[in-house]
Amino acid sequence: MKPVTVLLSAAEPQAALFAEMIAALGCRQADNASSDAEALVLAEGGDIAALSAAQRELPVIAMPSQRRTAEKAGLAVFAVLSTPLFDSLLHSLRRLSAQLPGHYAENNHDIGIVAHSEPMRRLQQLVQQVAAKSVTVMLSGPSGAGKEVVARSIHQLSARSAKAFVPVNCGAIPRELLESELFGHERGAFTGAISSRAGRFELADGGTLFLDEIGDMPLDMQVKILRAIQEKCFERVGSNTTRSADVRIIAATHRDLPAMIAAGEFREDLFYRLNVFPIAVPGLAQRREDIPALVIDISEQLAQDGVGELRLSPAALASLQCHPWSGNVRELANLLERLAIMYNGEMVGFADLPEAYRWEMDDWQQPAIEDVALQRSTPRAKFSAGGIDLKAEVRELEIRRIRESLEYANGVVSQAAKQLGLQRTTLIEKMRKYGLANKC
């Protein structure tokens, strides 16, 4: 889902609740006076009369109680929310995003790159610029960051997309077999070669050859790869016949190749041959704004594969955005797969996350989503000589959040507790403490 700029019309406590959900989905809330909104979310207490003429033209996502009011006012109701609200808002915004102009790549291809964050938007632009050219591309970035996804996107957007995309992990193949894997071999070329076999270069003829972890390639093999790239020809192992292949090379590595060159571990001439168009793929910690959309895409794939239906609460999703993600997108995918198996069809709350993934929002020093609405709903304290009553403010905040969670969960205490990351018994105790037990 590409980010949608949302105009929110609601009264408290709905306004704070929807602002949090909008932020958790990676979307931006527009200011009431702004003109860049792409959708209107109409919740309880929304003031239709205050809308400008331009805002009345926006597609509306409405609470059920607001549908008739919106239609009588001549608004275009795009979707009506249902419970659970978070899931319903997610799918409504996702459907709307697909229909908004300018929310796909310029050539209308879905190139598979989630690009809400500024680093990924820059990367997406580079991909679109280089895809149509046949130059060699060098992708750098940490393991698990999605370098193969970027390579496939370049291939899909190129004139070679009808031909094969052939990946080969240079670090995963034993060095004595790597030459045969890349260039093929003839029958009897070595023990076990019972028949002739085409290599990856031949299989990729007319298409793209993706050399993953090129930094792990042995030095003696680097010489042969350099010749194949320069001259576009090679020989199979055990053959004197020169073969040619029209192959575009995309290489990738997580290593520091200039440092390896200085240490004599990587050929400088091969580096410059590969590094024609370098693209740095950021780690997940540098693109936190992309996490909500990545969660959606991965969850949908898990459901299609029959692993399980995964649903994350806003609190759980916000916690994932605070995690450092040393394993990058691969770590996120593995976590979501585990959660889909454990909580198939259930709402995964903050407390359901493995302990290592439970983070408070204060742990996130560089927020990925600049959410003006949340800043307005929690104003800065106005200190004075008399100070502030912190206990009273914490009490007021707890009461408000408990009421919002109960409303979100339609009064089901166990579901509300999941939203808050609390045990059911703990929430009941707090409800009794604040006199809320008889109000839900």
UniProtKB/TrEMBL annotation:
- Does the UniProt entry include the keyword DNA-binding? yes
Q: Domain named Sigma-54 factor interaction: which ranges? A: 113-341
**Pfam families (alphabetical):** AAA_lid_14, HTH_8, Sigma54_activat
Q: List the PROSITE patterns.
A: SIGMA54_INTERACT_2 (PS00676), SIGMA54_INTERACT_4 (PS50045)
- InterPro entries per UniProt: AAA+_ATPase, AAA_lid_NorR, Homeodomain-like_sf, HTH_Fis, P-loop_NTPase, Sigma_54_int, Sigma_54_int_dom_ATP-bd_2
Superkingdom field: Bacteria
Keyword line: ATP-binding, DNA-binding, Nucleotide-binding, Transcription, Transcription regulation
Q: Which Gene3D superfamilies match?
A: 1.10.8.60, Homeodomain-like (1.10.10.60), P-loop containing nucleotide triphosphate hydrolases (3.40.50.300)
Q: What is this protein called?
A: Sigma-54-dependent Fis family transcriptional regulator
Could you tell me which species this protein originates from? Spongiibacter thalassae
Q: What is the lineage of its organism?
A: Bacteria, Pseudomonadati, Pseudomonadota, Gammaproteobacteria, Cellvibrionales
